[in-house]
Design a protein that fits this description.
six-stranded antiparallel beta sheet, about 140 residues, mainly beta, globular, seven-stranded antiparallel beta sheet
Length: about 140
Amino acid sequence: MAVINELIRAEADGTISFGDYTLGEKAKLDNFAHDGGSYKVKTYKDITKLECNDVFVYESVPGTAVSNFAKEEGKVSFVVEGAEDAQITLELEAESEYEVTINGESTGTAKTNLGGKLSFSVNLETEATVVIEKK
């Protein structure tokens, strides 16, 4: 996987890819239309953030590149790459329990807070495949 030079793009399978952790300065792209939503991405070496219709979706610290990001009822999946380990936060259903799987191994369950935020860390020695499913 490589950084997303367009900052965000639609993939043939209906998913989206976004982010460029190699940038030294912030870059952003607004109003990217995909699957009925208007996406905004901000990315560079320190942070990558994605919003849809002005609602928070994804954030990583430091910045990452995400490919094949898919969010459906009760499930989020994507592949993430970065220059170093990252803390990732997703917006999901409030006060719900989710199982987090990274590279096919469960890291256990985590509960979202009142705002629906779920945070977890990812070891990025290589790219990581992340699947989060509602319990």
